[in-house]
Amino acid sequence: MRLLRYALLLTAACLPVAAVAQAAPAPAQVAVKPIAYTQRTLPNGLRVYAIRDTGTPNVSVQVWYDVGSKDDPKGKSGFAHMFEHLMFKSTRNLVSEQMDRLTEDVGGYNNASTNDDYTNYYEVIPANHLQRLLFAEADRMASLVVESKSFGSERDVVKEELRQRTLAQPYGKLFSIYYPELAYQVHPYARPGIGSLENLEAAGIDDVRAFHATYYRPDNAILVVSGNFDPAQLNIWVDRYFAGIKTPSTAIPRVTVAEPARTKAVTRTVYEPNTPLPAVLLSYHLPPDRDDDIPALMVLKAVLATGESSRLYETVVYRDQLAQSAEAFLDTKQATGNMVIYAILAGGKTVEAGEAALKREIARFRDAPVTAAELAEAKNEILTQSIQSRETAEGKASTLAAAVLVDGDPAAADTQLAAIARVTPADIQRVARKYLADNQSATIRYMPIAAKPAAGVADSIAIAPTVKVADLKAPATIEIVTPALEGQRIKPPAPGKPVSPTVPHPVEVRLANGMRLVTVERHDLPIVTAYLVTSGGSASDPVNRAGVSSLAADLITKGTKTRSATQIARAIEGLGGSIGSDAASDGASVDVTVKSDQLAPAMAILADVAINPVFVPEELERARTQQIDAVTLSLKDPAQLAGLVADRAVFGASRYGAPSGGTPLSLKAITRSDITAAYARSFQPDQATLIMVGDVTPARAKVLAEAQFGEWSSTGGAAAAVMPIYPKPRVIVVDMPEAGQAGVIVARPAIPRSDARYYPLAVANTVLGGGFSSRLNQEIRIKRGLAYGAGSGLDVGKTQGTIAAKTQTKNPTAADVVTLIVAEMARMGSASVPAAELDTRKAVLIGNFGRGIETTGGIANIVGSYVQNGVPLDELQRFTGAVGAVDPAAVQSAAVALLDPKAASIVVVGDAKQFIAPLRKAYPSVEVIPEAALNLDTPALR
Fold first, then answer.
1. How confident is the model at residue 23, as a pLDDT?
2. Residue 497 burial (CB < 10 Å; 0-12/13-18/19+)?
3. Does residue 403 have a pLDDT over 60?
């Protein structure tokens, strides 16, 4: 979907450990290879960058324009982002939405995002479709058609995006509106990129045409092609499609105003609905991203807020338990950027205490140098992240393009990495003193509206009247492009010869204690993911103990017989890695991703947490409190709450119906013995599989596995299979008067993964709601502009499955959306899917699978799901053929049996007074449950 990105990027940092597998010496230290690219500039000014990678069957085509939200015209904030949506409509030669036909329908995908400084459009497609995408990108650069119908429809879609991302989500206004408005007093970065409902309405069609003519030109763009291509042929195609695009003679308007340094701290307190816990956010001005001080600030940020060994987590979240979460991110730009530090406070804690704690942590950087250990941790972690960001052709292209548009140098990302290696503790202290003084801060205290004193007056945060606005001076004459007549339209070229993907071949052995070991070799990058999966999971949670498996999984990384929680975090993150644990419906898991030279010590830590957890009472209480706060947050999000209610409606009293993360009531009831029992049900060697993917051989993997897991023995108590219970379907409304949008879900039982109808149903689901071109998205978003996106998902497990169609819409149209979803589900069974449509939906499934096996983590997740669901590992080789063999008759048969909406429950969470009348007319038996009366602990939900 066309989305506006807010980069709340998190990293990790920690201490190395001495534990290694003695039988397997670590390889030599690895480094990140610079991105190998070629570049040239066409006579019309278009800069072209090419990154060749013959190891992938795909290619990424990206066009980035040097125009963003800072260039929004006066009175029209959000304009650049809204324009981004219109670039997916028609051109002289392409019909509306044809970009989706050229990408998604052949197994690729496309998307776009709007940043303050740039707007980027990117596609990943099978390599044989490269020429077609170059043709399409050139056509929308040169000849975009702007007409009233699509303009009005996409404006409505952007309004729904604003409601979904900003108004409906807790803290949406804090990050997307209040933070930029308070951070800037002069620069147009102050204006929210998403805009406002009023500003979006103010934009007219002539503004759109002027914006395209002014900024969407070859000398204001870069083209990046990354992946499997022939360089000589690429040059020929680029010249053919782009070289003829004319460059206007008019100058490009540029924002030249500089944001003055902040010399006096500012603080604002606001009160907002749908705010379950108080929050506090601090921002500090930073220099442009290309500045020499940025590498030191990147390391500082990693020490401050990366992982559970970071200073923020260790003190504010873990030790003092002041916050449910505390994070930081660098929002660097072409001009003045910001370091942002924020905390969502824990239940019962004050915003004043949270603010003081954040400022204390910033002061520590000014007052004393970081330790040598902290410095090493941060650098190692940044290195690992950089390797991961370059695992795919798309990742390499995005890294290079951002360097060009933000820093003015395609090698900037590599240059920054080299500079990070040279950062010293003195550098970090120097930049902290230079940029992070108390008088340089802007603070927002974000409070629940219920906390507002009776006679209190909230502060206002708005765009300062001193903010300078971009001056849009359109060319004197603008060509109004119209679609070519059918006989005159130039069609995209035919695809080339397909490039066959390399499907990984797992190598499996079994240790003497019964544990399976699965290895998948990938030596293109020095990185390994180790993923231990088990049976059990949240479906085995006892009645009234929902969330116990999830809590047990979380706690295994919070203390072992020889390591405390802090020591575990410092040890694994010090290797540049991160450790995660989780409990799904049918199993639990723990995983780590590290550079391959750190694999041996990482495996020692992975084995320690899996085999030797101790579940210290104080850690249980800390985790319980954090989880209750996390659940409290989720219950205020209409979409998340609708999903929880839908699970109860579909599964009723079955343990699959209870919230896997628990409820405040169930979490409070959990004892340590409940935790140890949940752990024992899942973590046994004879029901565990260790998956290792990446730069490791099967022989080395076996040596490491035997060294670390060979002595692990079973103690019994394995979880028994859980069978689902499906009650009669229900229609449920949860009345949430403060909801900025309504969450809508239509869900029904499906099948387990082992069912022979899995592939026909998977294809049917993809026709219904899989991807931008699916029927649901076509009807709800594209045709009617009722939602930012609509789709459906097939969730299958070992013994059960569900299929759920879902979306979010403004409250008054919730009943209309329910009608549309139900009609599309019924249509799936009433008529055969045309062969041409079926082929495109199969391509979506196959393409998603192909991109999933591009990364170590992706392969590990796919193999892990096969293990937990009892699927043979040769499914990796079967998948593409099995999808391709599905015919229209099989899809219709599956739809008749498994998509009939008569067997579905309908859930709407939102402001009921705005939609209950039409919904009750269609469904007289609808149950209306006030938000305050909702009880997820019982099947009755009351």
1. 33
2. exposed
3. yes
Q: CA end-to-end span of the chain, whole Å?
A: 36
Q: Up-side HSE of residue 321: CA atoms within 13 Å toward CB?
A: 13
Amino acid in position 747: A
Separation CA 564–CA 570 (nearest Å): 10
Q: DSSP letter at 312?
A: I
Over residues 100-124, the pLDDT tens digits come to 999 999 999 999 999 999 999 999 9
Under a CB-based contact definition with an 8 Å cutoff, are residues 199 and 75 in contact? yes
913-922 contact pairs (CB < 8 A, 24+): 913/735, 913/737, 914/742, 914/811, 914/812, 914/814, 915/742, 915/811, 915/812, 915/813, 915/814, 915/815, 916/733, 918/815, 918/816, 919/731, 919/733, 919/814, 919/815, 919/818, 922/815, 922/818, 922/819
Dig out the tokens for 762 from the structure: 């998977």
Identify whether the C-beta of residue 358 lies closer than 8 Å to the C-beta of residue 316.
yes
Domains detected in the chain = 38-247 (3.30.830.10), 266-389+399-451 (3.30.830.10), 507-709 (3.30.830.10), 731-933 (3.30.830.10)
Per-residue confidence band for 493, with pLDDT thresholds at 50, 70 and 90: very high
Distance between CA atoms of 761 and 768, rounded to whole angstroms? Answer: 10
If pLDDT is split at 50, 70 and 90, which confidence band does 4 have? very low
* 620, amino acid identity: L
- Cα separation, 270 vs 177, whole angstroms: 12
pLDDT in tens, 701-735: 999 999 999 999 988 766 677 888 899 999 999 99
Confidence of residue 205 (pLDDT cuts 50, 70, 90): confident
Mean pLDDT along residues 649-664: 95
How do 790-796 and 927-930 pair as beta strands?
unpaired
Rg for the chain, CA atoms, rounded = 27
* Burial readout 880-912 (b: 16 or more C-beta within 10 A, e: otherwise): bebbeebebebbbbbbeebbebeebbbbbbbbb
Strands ordered across the beta sheet of 578-584:
507-510, 516-521, 688-694, 527-534, 587-595, 578-584
Q: How far apart (Å, rounded) are the C-alpha atoms in residues 605 and 856?
A: 19
Q: Which tokens sit at 301?
A: 């940020």
Of the pLDDT bands very low, low, confident and very high (cuts 50, 70, 90), residue 474 is: low
- Determine contact, residues 127/229, Cβ cutoff 8 Å: yes
Look up the pTM and report it. 0.92
Beta bridge partners of 560: 613
Q: Which residue has the tokens 């099948």?
A: 751
Pairing of strands 279-286, 221-227: unpaired
DSSP structure class, residue 536: -
Give the span between the Cα atoms of 32 and 400, in whole angstroms. 14
| pLDDT-derived band at 364, boundaries 50, 70, 90 | very high
Q: Tell whether the torsion through CA atoms of 596, 597, 600 and 605 is positive or negative.
A: negative
For 442, the 3-state DSSP assignment is: strand
How many other CB atoms are found less than 10 A from the CB of residue 920? 16
Tens of pLDDT, residue by residue over 61-74, are 999 999 999 999 98
What SS3 state is found at 91? strand
For residue 142, report the phi and psi dihedrals to the nearest 5 degrees: -90, -30
Contacts of 251 (CB under 8 A, 6+ apart): none
| DSSP 3-state of 807 | strand
